[in-house]
Structure of Adenosine 5'-phosphosulfate reductase:
Amino acid sequence: MTSDPLSALRAAAAERAALRAQERAEHHARRAARARPRRSTDELQEIARRGQAELGGSGIGADDEASAEEVVAWAVREFGDSIAVASSMSDAVLAHLVSQQSRWVDVLFLDTGYHFAETIGTRDAVEQTVDVTIVDVRPELTVAGQDSAYGKNLFARDAEACCRMRKVEPLRRALGGYEVWAAGVRRDDSPTRAKTPVVTFDEKNGLVKINPIAAWTYDDAVAYAAQHQVISNPLLDDGYPSIGCAPCTRRVAPGDDPRAGRWAGQDKTECGLHV
């Protein structure tokens, strides 16, 4: 008697999920066993300076600047497991890139409470398909709590304050447990990001920061995703080249600045994480 094909597929998927969960748990147990104290600010600053000399070549965007893979390899050598990847879940390109050299790396997802359903779906899909550990980073206040304390829809009246409470401060708290974090900032994102280095010391958060794909173009990221079958947020194909919180993000007309849909109509271009 032939078994139900759908049931067989579900059983196989459940088995794969269980195996992945076991591998992830075993990795984190080993990581905890070999954990060491976080190095001092002075030590981390010195490592960042060495990294700039080693990876930055003769300057930002120079021909001898290190590749994305070389930047990640340097970070893994220098920091071991003390690495975090920040992801907005526009895609899983950076998470996948780092996971190739640091399997089960922590990927920090800022769960602001205001995300598109597609973004949450992308987060869930990344957790199921990429060898990373998703860490949901949440604000101290729920959306309802913030509405009660500061009034409903703070984002419309004071976007800076909203971003600070729901993104900047939660990330700062989360990064306290790491020595380096990786961000997916690209120089072609906007004029404010045009001079992004591949490695720097993040004074605001007190640790080293790497931007492995700083030199990539949008097309480079798309090509990487296609080559490695990396998940992307479906909103990218629906007029949203830059995806943030739903109330503060709109579609962008073809040919417009990719970040024109972020905080449209306001004198604001960054949430504060990378400035």
Remarks:
- The mean pLDDT is 92.
